[in-house]
Every structure is written in structure tokens, then in C-alpha cells.
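no rush on this but wanted to send it before i forget. theres a chain ive been looking at and ive put its sequence and its fold in C-alpha cell form underneath. please have a look and point out which stretches look like helix strand or loop to you. thanks a lot i owe you, the record is right below:
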Amino acid sequence: MQILGRLRSDRVMRRPTPPRVYDPKGGRPPEHGGEFVFGDPATWGTEQAVTTTDTCLYGKATAQAWDRLHPRLTRRAAWLGHVGLLPIIEGTVIRLVVEKLPPPASGEGSETCARKPALRPVHRNLPVPAPVGHRVRRTAARPPVLATGEAFSRPAHHKVGTKPRRTG
């Protein structure tokens, strides 16, 4: 499963559990590795992947990735009723840094990218799935026509905006 989201800058993630080493004092092995504090670059360490590219709107864009990080879950909110050990849900944290923000939408400075053909995202033509439990309302593109060729008209008691009334 792949999920993409934004995380707050004050979050703290954990690294994978370090390999178990014999300790003559005994004790329980750690469940989590060291901390990865979003607001403290000293805790980040070296990234697993780095890529840099030049863009016309953002200047130089750099993406850094750290793999196998996970939040330390506690028995609050969604995990309150969970039975057993809490799972370790690992993922990849990607940090994107750009040199500059794009110009305002007023059109100033947009001529630098005007020569390149604009690509239309494919996902805009795909149907949006309705959430489970919601009614989907579809509107007809043209009025329905009967097999005889005449236009369909609703019966009087099925008119839009009228409710059946009890009379008795």
C-alpha cells in the first residue's frame, strides 16, 4: 500500500530497531531505534537517496529520502481499543527543498515556462470513486426519450420538489 501525506514539522519518527547485541547485564532489547526529529537536522543522519533537478518555476529542487522510519505509537485515539502489541508501521520520509517559490498567478514572470508544452495530468479524466456509504447523484446529460420518440415526463406525484402527503 502506498500513501502520500504531509507531516508537521514538530513530528518525531523512530529509526528501525538496531540489531540485538548480547548484554551481560541482561534486560529487554529496544523496540525502537534512534529518533529522527523533523525540526533538528542533526538527528537526520545520512539520507538513503538524494536527487537534484533544475526546474523553470522553482529553480533548483532537491529531494532527500530516509527509509524505514516509523512513528512511535501510543494507546491513544485510533489505537485505544487495539489488543496486543502495537504495530510498527515503517515508511519513507521524503523532504523536498526548492530554491524559490513560483511567481504569482497574475502572469508576471510566467514567460520563462511558456515555451514548454503544458502536460495535462492523466488523473483528471478518471472518475472519482464515491466514499463508502454515500449516495451518488447522477444528473442526466439530456432529457430521457421514450422508445416512441416522445419526451419522457414524470408523473405528477413524482415531480421534483414535491413530497407525498398523508391524508388520513
DSSP finds no helices and five strands in the chain. The two ends are 57 Å apart (CA to CA). Residues 157 and 164 are 7 Å apart (CA to CA). The mean pLDDT is 77.
